[in-house]
Amino acid sequence: xxxxxxxxxxxxxxxxxxxxxxxxxxxxxxxxxxxxxxxxxxxxxxxxxxxxxxxxxxxxxxxxxxxxxxxxxxxxxxxxxxxxxxxxxxxxxxxxxxxxxxxxxxxxxxxxxxxxxxxxxxxxxxxxxxxxxxxxxxxxxxxxxxxxxxxxxxxxxxxxxxxxxxxxxxxxxxxxxxxxxxxxxxxxxxxxxxxxxxxxxxxxxxxxxxxxxxxxxxxxxxxxxxxxxxxxxxxxxxxxxxxxxxxxxxxxxxxxxxxxxxxxxxxxxxxxxxxxxxxxxxxxxxxxxxxxxxxxx
Length: 297
Ligand code: CA
Ligand code: CA
Known about the structure:
Elements: E1 2-4, E2 9-10, E3 12-13, E4 21-23, E5 28-33, E6 59-65, E7 73-83, E8 86-91, H1 99-102, E9 108-115, E10 118-121, E11 124-127, E12 131-136, E13 144-145, E14 149-150, E15 153-155, E16 166-170, E17 176-184, E18 198-199, E19 201-210, E20 219-221, E21 225-232, H2 235-253, H3 258-268, E22 270-275, E23 281-288, H4 289-295
Bound molecules: calcium ion (2 copies).
C-alpha cells in the first residue's frame, strides 16, 4: 500500500502541484491528514489568534493516479476512515447561519475526546459518524482553494463521503492529482453554525480510473443509493444543479425515460443540504438504487 504522510499538504487544488506519490489504478493509498486547523487548536488554551486562517483546511496529497486522463472519472472507494483521538468544535461570528447571533463575541472552542466510536461532549456521548470534508482532484484552470467546493470536489462537506462509500470525481488533468483532508468525527446535515467535529485521521482509499464516462460532476454510491453532489453560489443554485445532474445520470447512464427519472425523484428521491457555510454551498440528490434498477432498461 502507498502511504502519504501529512508532511505533504496543499491549501489549493492545482494542476501545477508536484505529486506526493504515484498510484496504479486499483491500488490502495493511505492518507494521513491534519484537522482543518492543522493541529494548532489541539493545544489546550490555544485560540484563533494562534491560527493563521490562510492555512485553513490543509489537505494531504496530491496523488498522481496513472492512466487517469481528462474526461475520465476517478473512482475512489473509501475502505477505511479512522478519526484521531480529539476533535474540535468552535462557534463564532465568522460563518454560518448564526453569525449575527455570535457577531463580535470571542469564538468558543471545545476539544472533544473521541473514543470507541463515541464523542464526549460535556459528558454526553454522541455517536461518531466519520466523514471526509475535503476530497478532490486538480481542476483544469486556476487553482481552487481547499475551502471551496466545485466540480473537482474540494470542500463538499457531504456526510455520505464516509467509510464504505464510493466517490466518483471527474478528472481534469493527467494523473487526476487527488488530495484529502478536513475529516469530521461527526457533522450535522448542513453544517449550519460553523463546523463539524474537526479532526485529524487516517483514510485508506482504493483508487481506480473509469474511461470517458461523460459524467462531469461528483457522485457518490453506497449500498442503497446513487447521489449527485452539486455546488453553487446559493443553495438554490446548488439544489437545482444536483437534481438536473441526477436526472441526466438516470437517463443517460441508467436507461430511465425522462418521465420515469422525474417521477422517481418526486416519489422517492431526497434533496439534501450538505453545507451552507463554505464560500460555495453544496447540495445533494439521493435516489434509491433498487428503484433505479427496476425502472432502468
Ligand atoms: Ca469543510
Ligand atoms: Ca471541516
